[in-house]
Design goal:
This protein is α/β, with parallel strands linked by helices and 269 residues long. Helices cover 52% and strands 13% of the residues.
Amino acid sequence: MPKLNQRIAILGSRGIGLPIAEGITNSEITENKVIITRKNSSFSEKEKEQFICYHDNNLAVKESDIIIVAVQPKQFNDLIKEIRNELTDKHILISIVSGVNISDIESLVGKNIAVIRTMPNTAIKVGQSMTCLAFNKLGENFKSLVQTIFNSVGQTLLIEEAQFPEATVLCGSGPAFVFEFLNGYILACIQHGFNKEQAMQIASQVTKGAAEIIQKTKNDPALEIKDVTTPGGCTIYALVEMQHAGLNSALLKGIEIGIEKAKKLYSKT
């Protein structure tokens, strides 16, 4: 596959911004060094070697074609106001900021440019993010390009923007739910005689293996459960007890509450 020749700038290289930059760089999908910005703190020697590092957001915008905004929601408006004079119709503006709608971004920019909303998650740091994408009318011209960028750090899914409150919880918050399950699994391993290192290995590999089965076979998990259980066996007894304790019910209710909260946050923007 030919490499991208567009210059990518990531404004805000704290939090998720830096893993995105690292993922793009490690995937070697672009022939240019990624630009990263950081307003009020220094860059490490490793970062200076790996990226083009600026404290000036406007300079980063001038020298780039694709801009990924990775700041906190409370910083978003001020950042767009800071850079909008440098934005032109050549730019592709990608936001990973939760709670800010495409129409809000367009109004703040005040120019007709391609705008894309994304919802990645923290697994982006290991190249395994589930990233949801939505585009404005101009942004639709760059679907393939944007998917190429985010497929380099995981998988992408095109959704309607109206689904972003749900995507915020199911994709953005999703790793936390899996970590909570893993934490319980690790405790169970330790309770039954395995040390912490062994417990973490068992829990993480079991989870990874099960996920890969679903990804590769596309089978319903319920079908895979049948292959593991035997009549009167230990697996079915354990599963029945988990259901009596409300495992699925707790997961569904927790996600429902999270989405209700996300919708309230989005309605304030």
